[in-house]
Amino acid sequence: MLYKELDLPAIPNDIIPSKEEISNSTTDTIPKHTSFYQTFQVNPELHKWLKDYINLTDEYKAQFQFLTNHIPVHIDYGRTAVLNYLFETGSIDPVYTNFYSKDKNDLLDRTHKIEIPCYKWHVLKTNHLHDVSYIPGTRVALSIWASNINPWFVS
Known about the structure:
Blueprint: E1 3-5, H1 19-23, E2 37-41, H2 44-53, E3 60-74, E4 81-88, E5 96-102, E6 108-115, E7 121-125, E8 130-146
């Protein structure tokens, strides 16, 4: 399974910073920023809420992501799965996360096209080829990875 929505509690609005507050916060330099990908540190109130309400290991990494334009086909470095929560898709039109395999000629073949909703927890397998379709605005998400995320893929 490459994508799975999870029945976890919604993040309360009063601890979600605005896009402007996030962009004015400390940037996270891992992974390296690009013209289409930026990361920012999570505020202490949200960290506390995550520890209280989401079943994560003590050692986890959480950051806000800003994605713009088209995120090219890639495999994430240093993680096999990620827990995400979208706040804004960055578009009034559907934005898709696509998964790919390579055919016998090493050409990409899209195997899955997923429209991910806002305000819903989901897990993505990031050790498979994937991209995000064109985003005219800024997609804002919370992205978390930890050692115990992979078990959430068990059906």
